[in-house]
Amino acid sequence: LFKSSEPFDSAQGKSMEAGDLAMIDPENPVRLKKATQDKRNFLAGPISTSPAIVFEGSGLKALGGVYQPEEDKVPLTLSGRVPIKVNLENGEIKIGDPITISSVPGIGTKALTGGKIVGYALQGYNGNNEPAVNYGKILVLANLENWTASVVETSSAFESSWIANAIDSVISWLKSTVVSTSPRSSQDPCW
To answer: Do the Cβ atoms of 99 and 93 come closer than 8 Å?
Structure first.
């Protein structure tokens, strides 16, 4: 797959692997570690499988085979198509869905709320292909950005629960407020 990457020091050594989502490690300058949901703003991108182009310092390597980074370094995808690990935490993933970090460190999921994403799904995922594991892999077009969820993209479950709660609140208020609709006579002092 055609992608460009840059090697970064890994705060977690060999525990980070191709397909993991990485984040900037706030406790170790210029290092990456597996991304976590509570630090979504530190999301850096996916770890590459075998990049076509690698930026190393001021140099550039064009590769035709498997890239072997130095010890404790991981190739962070800068652009291109890359397979990443995903789960179904936020529902089935469809082509074009924005991908962000799930509650499982290093594993992506469909983004439902605005914030950092690593890119857009080039393949769908419904979990049928990997029943024995808690994640699968899909191709994503790497594009680290701050994504804004529009009303159309917001989960219909969220929308319907919000609307239902609003209607329930109005009905409760109306039930608690007694409004007299009986006709009044001209003898009534409030008439």
So the answer is: yes
Which residues neighbour 74 within 8 Å (Cβ) at sequence distance 6 or greater?
7, 8, 10, 16, 22, 32, 47
Max intra-chain CA distance, the chain: 97
Three-state secondary structure call for residue 166: helix
Contact 118, 82 (CB under 8 A): no
pLDDT at 157: 45
Least confident range of 11-15, 139-143, 166-170: 166-170
Nearest to 17 by CA among 135, 120, 147: 135
The closest of 95, 111, 94 to 35, measured between CA atoms, is 111
* Helix extents (H) in the chain: 156-176
State the Cα–Cα distance between residues 9 and 11, nearest whole angstrom.
7
Copy the structure tokens of residue 180: 């007299």
How much is the pTM?
0.72
Tell me if 68 sits within 8 A of 117, measured CB to CB. no
Query: d(Cα 19, Cα 182) in Å, to the nearest integer?
Result: 70
Cα–Cα–Cα angle for 102, 83, 125, rounded to 5 degrees: 60
